[in-house]
Amino acid sequence: MKNRIVLLSIFVSTMMVAGCISEAIEDSVNEDSPNPSEYVWEDDGELVIVTYDVYGLTDEMLSEFENQTGYEISLMKLDDAGSVLNHLMQHKGVQIADLAVGLDNTYLQTAIDNQLLWEHFANISNIKPEVLTPYNGPLAAPFDHGYMCLNYDTEMVDGENLTVPTSLWDLTNEEWNGKVAIPSPETSSPGRAFMTATVDYFANDEDNQTEWTDWWTAMSANDAIITTGWSEAYETHYTGGYGEYTEGYVGDAHMVVSYCHSPGVESWYNGNWTKSAALDLPRSAFHQVEYASAVEGGNLDAASAFIEYLLSEEVNVKMPTENFMYSVIENSDLPEDGGYRYHSTVPTLAANVSASDIALNMESWLEDWNAAMVAA
Amino acid sequence: MNSRHLGILAVCAYTILVIVPLWLAIDRLIWISGFDIVNWIQSLERNFVSQGAFEFTLIQATISTIATLVIGIPIAWQLGRYKWPHDYLIRSILTMPFVMPSIVAAMGFLHLISESGLDIRSNKDTWFATLIIAHAWFNLSLVIRFCEPVLSTLDPKMEEQMLLLPAGRTKIGRIRNLWIPLLTPSIAAAACMTFVFSFTSFALVKWITLGENTLESMMASIGSSAGINGYMISKNEIILGSSLIQFTILLLSLWIMSVLQHKRQSRLPKASESIVKMKNKSGWFIVVPAILFAITPLITLIISSFRVRESGPGSTTYSWSTAGWEYAFTSTSSLPSAWDALFNSVGYALTALAIALPLGWMLAQFICDLEKVRPRLARFFDLFTMLPFAVSSVMIGLGVMLGMIRIDAEFFYSLWLTPAIAHVMITTPFVVRIILPALRSIDPVYDECARTLGISKVKRFFKIKVPMLRGSILIATIFTLAMSMGEFGASWVVTRNSDWTTLPIMIDSLRSIPYNNSLTAPAANAVASVLMLIALILFISTEKFRPRRDGGMF
Amino acid sequence: MLSCKGLGKSFDKVLFDDFNLDLQSGEIVAITGPSGCGKTTLLRCICGLEELDEGQIILDGKDITNTIAEERGIGMIFQKPVLYPHLDVEGNLRLGSRDCDITATLAEVELTGFESRRIETLSGGEGQRIALARALLANPSVLLLDEPFSSLDEELSDKLLSDVREFLKRRNCPAVLVTHNLDVAKKFADSVISIK
Fold first, then answer.
1. Which chain C residue shows the shortest CA-CA distance from B459?
2. ipTM of predicted complex
3. Which of C39, C28, C22 is nearest to C165 (CA)?
């Protein structure tokens, strides 16, 4: 009996200690973000970059930076933009990374609202004005941009097997069942960009009865393939791209959310030929800008140096060929070789969703999207 | 300090290391999303990312269990009832899949069904069947381990007796009246364990199916967004709901299994080793395919690591080269080399061993001693040490990430050993399960006699107890090392930092690299081959020391 | 010398009550009684493997009632030879005394050349002889014997008993033998105590 009491009391007191610890943790991280003048950091000669698989961060590009500045880079590669944001949120106040690359204009606001980013002091200039529209400030430096839109496989969508949609509602028809691949807005930046476009699209279509969420419900009912990231949608599912040459190719989708210039990339790789085309429906495209941001508490010297490097003309003009996105440098354009520029579409009318709209509504949009998908 | 104090110390250490992180994690999740069990369960259906996960988990686990029994029982029958040349080798081969890390199996099967193999992967309809078969492959050894000893050590008089009785004249009658009652506890136990493993499947589901989620894989995918105050609250609810479901179902399965194990022990007619078995030529039609089934995924894995598939518009070429291996073993700025992963894996395994073995031993000793004076309290502690079995590895990973690390994030993130915490949590219960029966089996007279010879407690421990339990200690050691090195679920949640990457995580990372890099698949398979070979070596070492015919999992 | 005063123990029923024994140097006593009457428990209490309910044990003037078994200096031979399977004969003997003359010890129990023999290969009689040699190597003040030869056939048992008696007398080691066989008791011991 005595032993039992002893053991029980040890057990209970251990749990109580644990409970006290957990309460202490909740209280600890509630300080406000400091002023730039109050920033304190340590330059340990290392730069840790948290990112997803940004193609442009090649070994050559990184070692060039290392040689130029002496900083040692290590990449923390996560799955997608959502993972990057989650990582920053999880490590609030105790960040591991110095630089975050890959948050876009649909993810950035959350990071800013939660004081996860610091103002960098990189010297940047010569940036296209339209790239600065969503955000123009020291917390995030735009390093590439592009237009999100649907791409389709012209060999399958040829008028016989499938017809080119004239409205997004066409994709909810039986013929498109299980043939559209869309990355999830909860995890992927292209996915979130596209969802944001649909908000605008359906707010401006002739049909006043339906909401954008109704369309998503219909898509869910029509077995739209929702993936966690863009690469799974484009490489594994889409038949119009290079996916068929990759391992694990499934090839069940003939329509995918990608970039309006993706067919250009395909053509450039294939030597001036592609079967992929962008679907240019008004307001179905979204202007996406991707950012590099210094992470709070990180090595601000290294982060700023890298931002400067990334946005330098020599490096940034290579975005189309290294990163398959538009460069942010003024007066730059896609290259002409290989039919890159020719096969790339500039949308006639992109979705018009302001940065402040996004800041205000993204959270509820995501909730609505979730509810819409479940409702099917 | 006497043994009782040691035991209490062990219980405290165990509570702090194993129970507290889980408690803290769950406490945090509840703090963020509120305590409302109904809400948690409902959130599974309310959210797109989790919708259908429970149904899928249940269905595939059930079908996997059935498939495993259907495939496994005939094999166990053949092995147990008939004489085979090199039967030790055959049995080893057939039970070997069980110790394979799940990620290795995933890569093996993935290769089998992909373009370089049977090329059925692009057909979605094959995914479910492949998953089931992969689960059966894994858990075959459970059926064999549980059923075969019963079959082969049955006193032949029982069968002879049955043949003479009216009920046993026909084969059906014998099956119904002798074999089924005899085998049911073993089959049911094997079924329970198979169900448990299939229910918490992660790596196989992730790689063989695309987009389908078990509760486990779904929790892993949303884990990184959980535990953050005011952010993605629904994810916390989902995790609470699914971990509760998992816990309940696992606990139920384990309870059923422990009841059956208990029943089985009292039912077994005493074994007779010297049974003369007959050969069965037609049995080769079962045993040979079984052997091929067991080894094929692994052989293809090794072969595929040397095969590079270059595919481009208009052409696909295959070439034999070591490029995949070179790629895997070279570090880049984004991925460490397999050497680093190997170093980490071995380091974490040894750390887990250094903690789990003494801790598990102390717990086992404590329970064993308690059984003599307070059997009911002993049973309570026995179940207490089994608790982690009912917690899936992803949940343990979340326990470390949300529970432990949150205590002092900066400290834990700078500590290389942090992922090993998860490994200790997972392996300690296994040590207890291996050492406890061994301790029970030592006749107390051995210790008593040593006492009368004036040998001190410490000397008795090292000169008598440890050497007598040498076999079990070795098995516990190897098992701990193997489990740690092959651990995937918890590590996946915790190690998002290349400093901590382990072999299984590296395999997953390599295979996840997008775009048209023809080396990523061979590289992943190369690392998987290394991990496989390590697991094989550990397995072979265990087989030498396993007590034969014990009919248990280990 | 061993002195037991008023030893008593019960477990559900009374096993023994107010047991007294005085053992002088070199004296051999036998305790007889029917099976299950507590003789083994009595021995176990004397050597410290079990706790007494009441009574006192004094050895060479020291009260050892509450001393742990390994420190009492009382040896015991069990009913079956307790030999450690992970050690050979020599290893087992060394448990009794680390530096002893193995050859001489084995010669004394008429098992010359058995140093490297595995325990499994020994017969019952050989095993008990090794156990005895080992126990004596530990230099006990008293040796307790719990029906050590009851599982052997009568002829062998008799021989072994007289050998053991000889060893004990030579060493002047007092001993207590427990047996259910009155004849054995009379042959082996100087005096016999009966327990009901």
1. C95
2. 0.93
3. C28
